[in-house]
Amino acid sequence: MQHQKAAVFILLGQSNAVGHGLPMREEDIIKAPLKNVFGLSRNENQSFDSKELVWRGYTSFGMNLAEEQDNTYSVANCLAALWQKHIDEGNKAKLPDLYIIQIAIGAQGVTEEYMWHPDREKKLIPGVLGTVDISLFPFCEHIFGLLDDSFAKMEMEYGIIGLHWRGGENDVTAAEDYLTKHLENIYTRLFDSFNRLLHTPPIVLHKIVCPDRMNDMDPTGQYLAKMNYINSVFDALQDRYANVSVFDVRNAPQYVPNIRGNGLFIEDAVHFTPEVNRWVASCIMEACE
Q1: Among 22, 137, 210, 265, which is disulfide-ready with 261 (CB 3.0 to 4.6 Å)?
Q2: How far apart are CA 260 and CA 196, in angstroms?
Q3: Cα-Cα-Cα-Cα dihedral of 189, 184, 262, 170, to 10°?
Q4: What total of structural domains would you count in the chain?
Q5: What range does the domain containing 142 cover?
Q6: Does the pTM exceed 0.70?
Q7: Percent of the chain's residues with pLDDT above 90
Q8: Quick one: 197 exposed, middle or buried, by C-beta within 10 A (0-12, 13-18, 19+)?
Q9: 118-124 CB contacts, 8 Å cutoff, 24+ apart
Q10: How many angstroms from the chain centroid is the CA of residue 49?
Q11: What is the Cβ-side half-sphere exposure of residue 72, based on CA atoms within 13 angstroms?
């Protein structure tokens, strides 16, 4: 029996992986489940006790397995809409069906006080930002550990087109000596686990490029210096792992130097605009065609 092929896209991180503050216009909300794009519904998969993954036709609500903030212009929602559009336009021969995994909670880094820290006490409290409390690393391990069996049961072969990490901003609150001693090791623990469970997928780290926000939070420049240090760790990880690359959103056509937010962010200077997220989705799409 010849197995069908499927593409898997994984989006992890914090608020820029959620699409925080970017509510979709009514006409862009994906209400009817898509025919060729699928996601893991939060109601059926947000558990440490699940034994198998439940995929549903993709909608722009109920598909982030972590925070409850739906119908946003996240990269996941933008990619889902673009992927289905290309198939509807006759590109099914070029594109397999897409399966999306999104796990993100706003304001969470990887250092000790945040939900991505690998040694955090295991817990899963669902809800909106401010209520939700999930130990994200073991939760990802649980979900990723079910992936092979899920596609085997569907008699499908799958390939991961990218695990995109959009996070790290909140780690500027950690002490400088803590970051220099521990940050790279923490990411190494995360990525070693993901590589083992996902068979060394392409991992894409999105550089943190919000200097105005850093200076808003700390005019002394310490947060800006830590932001640059975190980016240097991303560069080091790219050098260490053959399957890790760094993505710089400043290559977007929306980028404008020497103005606040550089044309990339909404008014808060930390959350990317819908147009930027659509551009990121188009880059992912182009790499698959």
Answers
A1: 265
A2: 41
A3: 70
A4: 1
A5: 4-288
A6: yes
A7: 96
A8: middle
A9: 118/186, 118/189, 118/190, 122/48, 124/46, 124/47, 124/48
A10: 23
A11: 24
pLDDT of 247: 98
Q: What is the pLDDT of residues 191-212, one digit of tens each?
A: 999 999 999 999 999 999 999 9
Cα–Cα separations (whole angstroms), residue 33 to 25, 27, 60, 133: 17, 15, 9, 28
Query: Which tokens belong to 249?
Result: 């959103």
Query: What's 118's domain CATH number?
Result: 3.40.50.1110
* CA–CA separation, 16 and 164 (whole Å): 11
> Encoding tokens for residue 212?
């105005």
Q: Which whole-number Å values give the CA distances from 206 to 35, 126, 272, in the listed order? A: 29, 26, 12
Give whole-number Cα distances, 275 to 104, 191, 246, 254, in Å.
Answer: 20, 29, 20, 8
Residue 127 Cα distances to 69, 130, 254, angstroms: 9, 8, 33
Distance between CA 170 and CA 27 in Å, rounded?
A: 33
